[in-house]
Design a protein that fits this description.
single chain; about 425 residues; alpha/beta; 2 domains; ten-stranded mixed beta sheet; 9 helices; about 20% helix; globular
Length: about 425
Amino acid sequence: MAGLLEKSDTQWSLFDRNAPLDGYGKQHWQSALELGLPTSCDEDWKYTDLSEFQQLDFFEKKEEALTTQQVEQCRMDCDAYILVFVNGVYQPALSDSDIGMFRLSSLESKAKEKLPHAIRPEIFLHLTEAMSHSGLCISLGESCQAEKPLYLLHIETPASGAIIQARNHIVLGQHSQACVIEHFVSLADRSTDENASNLSSDHVGNYVGARLTMQVESNSQLEHYHLCQGASRSFYFSHNDLHIGRDAKVSSQSFLLSGQLIRHHSSSVLNGENSELMLNSLCLPDSNCTYDSRTYLEHNKGHCTSEQLHKMIVQDQATAVFDGMIKVAPHALKTNGQMDNHNLLLSDECAVNTKPQLEIYADDVKCSHGTTTGAISEEHVFYLQARGIPQCQAEQMITFAFAAELTEAITIPAIAELVCNCITKKLSENGNEG
């Protein structure tokens, strides 16, 4: 991978010979070149090891044709408007033709230039912007209430060492209301096809980059879910930006469920008074995986409220990282911001690194942050065993209780079921099944 960032200016079309980078893409590619791939010496990457990723020689994954049956294998069973993306490319033939009051347009380079600047840019954001050749701008007009959630289903087809990039933008007009679901899945883990399900043990997985920007205008309401349920050997780098206007209400919940390495950024700016934001996340790393969840929130106007709850359930030799920042501008009076991070360790070999932060430049605010990390309480297990519950089942019950505060906040039953099934599966695979 390091070699990809050492190409000369004459090789802008490195990843797609038929689609050389335009001016917008070149700017982001140049920014990536200037930053270079991070190492453990970089503070933001101290606990996220990229050594395996850097050794891989990636190629750009081409568009592939999937059947309706394959899409059905990947999608959740929920009533929603579905837009299907295969290897980052929108597939109209596999998507719903009726998407209610939502409107679609192509996210071309000129359209990207008019979008808000990235809140917290870093190298993989620049790479996604430079290398994503297609995307959608999805808009909901003023005073519109979407009848069903908008389901963005991103399907990764089986490969080894492929580059996949996805870039989309969503706009909610004033006085509008919508629910948006991002779901990243791998066909390799779901297909019954012999070539897909019997990949060799030396399969290295893919590099998947994703960026979704969301613009929530005044008096609007957005409910957003980000689900990463990717291939067990793939690398996922995702960035969600939220630009929130006055009197808006937004909830954004992220669930990092499977993948070799996942680094997810949720960046938000509150640009209008009296807005409310809820940010939740749940990470389930196991084996030798690394899941890195990062939040950055700017309170730029007064009288706004933000609540954050981030939990990690870590097993085996896995590593979990949480980095959160709340920044309050000098004129953002009466700000109320809370951020909590709680972590559950299920083995002696796993690790959690957490860094909640506050940066406050205003008086008359109410902000707090806190974090806890620990193993399952032996007293709690003994209490359940004393009532005839086997140890494995007792530990599973405690683990589900730990996650319940997040799963119960999910308003869509299909998502809650998917997350609970992932927890059950991971506990079962690691010998904690009751």
